[in-house]
Amino acid sequence: MQFNEAINWRYAAKKMNGQPVPQAKIDAILEAIRLSASSAGLQPYEVIVISDPVLKAKVYEKSCPQPQIQEGSHLLVFASQLSVSEEDISTYMERIARTRNIPVDSLNGFSDSIKNGLLSMPPEIIKNWASRQAYIALGFGLVAAAVEEVDSCAMEGFNPAALDELLGLTEKNLGSVVLLALGYRDEEKDFLAGAAKVRKDRAELFTELVA
């Protein structure tokens, strides 16, 4: 399936058939998320991958009573950091130095610019910024799933506090922001399966400016 075909094919699947997604496809989707764009490359979030039926049932009962939670093959919980510290930034600098085989001291200017900019912001601004980074990663996951011909449904309609407690996220400096169910559509039970995608046309969506 070509890229444009894949993103036209995808939709927010409302009913899934319980068929497991092959691990190779899950790995491809997770790798796309790992390689997602992120402000300054910091990736201030984690993605919790849930395939265990018992745990999915608990998520359904305590936080998100939507059928895709249990009918899907995997559930991804995008959880952003509640705060960002100097240690987080230093760890990122060490990762850059290790990956690119350069002295970590050569990154002092970059490190200082991030610290001076990001850490000077109010905590609530930093928290909101981190959650937006998680949403960028979600977008990569949605597109990767479509390319792999795996159905998906992003969900915000859940109880974050209950989910955070269930998964022990708060003590890890994390808060759940959005869910992504992965699986295969139930053609017979999903009223949207096969429906034409409805989007704004180009003239409504795009404004081209010239000098």
From TrEMBL:
<feature type="domain" description="Nitroreductase">
    <location>
        <begin position="7"/>
        <end position="184"/>
    </location>
</feature>
<dbReference type="InterPro" id="IPR029479">
    <property type="entry name" value="Nitroreductase"/>
</dbReference>
<keyword id="KW-0521">NADP</keyword>
<keyword id="KW-0560">Oxidoreductase</keyword>
<dbReference type="InterPro" id="IPR000415">
    <property type="entry name" value="Nitroreductase-like"/>
</dbReference>
<keyword id="KW-0288">FMN</keyword>
<dbReference type="Pfam" id="PF00881">
    <property type="entry name" value="Nitroreductase"/>
</dbReference>
<comment type="similarity">
    <text>Belongs to the nitroreductase family.</text>
</comment>
<dbReference type="InterPro" id="IPR033878">
    <property type="entry name" value="NfsB-like"/>
</dbReference>
<keyword id="KW-0285">Flavoprotein</keyword>
<protein>
    <submittedName>
        <fullName>NAD(P)H-dependent oxidoreductase</fullName>
    </submittedName>
</protein>
